[in-house]
Amino acid sequence: MESKQSHSIVGIWTNACRFLLALVFIFSGFVKAVDPLGTQYKIQDYLEAFGWVALVPAFLPFLASVLQAMVEFCLGIYLLFGIRRRMTTLFVVVIMGVMTPLTLWLALSNPISDCGCFGDAVTLTNWETFGKNVLLLIAAVSVFKWGNRITPLVTKRFDWLVAMYAFFYILGMTLYCYRELPVFDFRPYRIGTDIRKGMEIPEGAKPTVYDTRFILQKNGVEKEFTLDDYPDSTWTFVDSRTVVKEQGYEPPVRDFSIIRQEDGEDVTDEILTDDKYTFLLVAHQLSQADDSSIDLINELYDYSVEHGYQFYCLTSSPDSDIEDWQERTGAEYPFCLMDDITLKTMIRSNPGLMLLKNGVVINKWSVNNLPDEYVLTDRLENLPLAQVNEKTFSHKVVLVLAWFVFPLLFFSMVDVIWEHFHRKKKLKLKENRTK
Asked: How far apart are CA 63 and CA 119, in angstroms?
């Protein structure tokens, strides 16, 4: 009796761990697939923290981003449906066995403030991430040890169909969001956002206090200084680092400062308070920017000049790269300088186009989906693309469910019906034999 009861408890525990891991892996893989460039940037942060940037080919972080999203999502689906149990539980326990000590190191050394395990959808501190991974590691060991207790939701007749559909679904989602823009935008520059409000600190909120340390050298000896004890000019600057001295309120929009390249003037307020429309061509690195749509970009600039709208190209590129871009593309629009990380956060396309009015993000386009002459048939005031018309979050969730969950439910229902029909047929044959 006791053995039967313990067997039941182990089965319940194993399946509870299985569903927990499934939900976490599906969510983690999905948000990475929705924003593959964001995951790529996070991987590059890891490489910088390890000092491996020069050793890794430029294409590898993006490839790793795609593979990570696909592996996590598919493993989550396999766990959810209880298919490929031996392979799935082995992969999950290996992944958690690697990630748990890695996040412990991140928590202790803090080279990166956010591990990026859930992209921009959910931000966790390094210690919160480590705690989460400890819990998942326990669950992973449990499902690996008692994998035979996992109850499958489909028979082996249909498990290949679920596995194949999960693979192609997440691959298609990743490629679509890379070519266009993320289906779900969790960043502070999503359509409909008032950038000025995002920069505000609520009354009474205490801002974060930072401490900048300077590493200087003299006579071959390096020493660290603060602003209070900064030495004389006999010391040579080597490096600097900024650390959080006291954590306070962090506004969603930070480091949003636009400097005109031509004269060094700050035009941030001028752009954010413009009651007309402003086009912002965002290209964080012009040397890496896609120039396949240069003619269309130049036509957009001509359109903005004709109708009296502002048009700026925002970049963090050096002057030499800006000059090279102008020579290659014939660009006549003005350039402004901005923080590289801010530009990557604003739009996941290089280049990408944003439309602002009174500091509100009206619309965004990737380089593969820029508005052309067939769309820009009138002034922006009279066109639907210049109105905030973002699909609601719930509407997007329904679309995602329609394209993924409903087909999987359909497969499961067909499997149940087929299994019922098959059993009924076998039972009828058995009855006929006994007669």
From this structure: 16
Give the pair of three-digit tokens for residue 9.
């408890």
One domain, residues 339 and 426 = no
Residue 25's DSSP bridge partners are none
Q: How far does Cα 405 stand from its chain's mean position?
A: 22
**283 residue type, one letter:** A
pLDDT tens per residue across span 291-341:
999 999 999 999 999 999 999 999 999 989 999 999 999 999 999 999 998
Contact partners, residue 131, CB within 8 Å, separation at least 6 = none
Is 173 part of any domain? yes
CA angle 298, 300, 302 (to 5 degrees): 70
Total Cβ atoms within 10 A of residue 249: 11
235 shares its domain with 317? no
Helix (H) or strand (E) holding 356: strand 352-357
The reply to whether 132 and 268 lie within a common domain is: no
DSSP 8-state code for residue 209: E
Q: Is 219 part of any domain?
A: yes
Read off the pLDDT of residues 194-231 as tens digits, 9 standing for 90 and up. 999 999 888 777 777 767 777 888 888 888 887 677 78
* Residues 6+ away with beta carbon under 8 Å from 247: 208
Residue 302 near residue 294, CB atoms below 8 Å: no
57 and 13 in one domain?
A: yes
DSSP conformational letter for 184: S
Q: Which residues, in sequence order, are CB contacts of 340 under 8 Å at separation 6+? A: 284, 285, 316
**Full residue range of the structural domain in which residue 280 is found:** 259-386
Q: How many domains does the chain have?
A: 4
In the sheet with 360-366, reading across from the earlier edge strand, the strands are 259-260, 335-337, 310-315, 277-282, 352-357, 360-366
Helix axes 156-179, 2-34, angle to 10 degrees: 30
**pTM of the full structure:** 0.84
In angstroms, rounded to a whole number, what is the distance separating the alpha carbons of residues 172 and 256? 33
The tokens for 314 are: 């925002």
| Residue 286 structure tokens | 């012009």
Cα–Cα distance, 266 to 336 (Å, whole number): 9
* Order of all β-strands in the sheet with 209-218: 221-225, 209-218, 236-246
Residue 197 falls inside a structural domain:
no
Q: In this structure, which amino acid lies at residue 402?
A: A
Q: Rounded to 10 degrees, what is the CA torsion of 416, 420, 426, 430? A: 150
Q: Strand 236-246 and strand 209-218: pairing?
A: antiparallel
242 and 359 in a single domain? The answer is no
Tell me whether residue 252 is in a domain. Answer: no
Output the DSSP codes for 369-406. Answer: S---TTT--S-GGGSGGGS--PPPHHHHHHHHIIIIIH
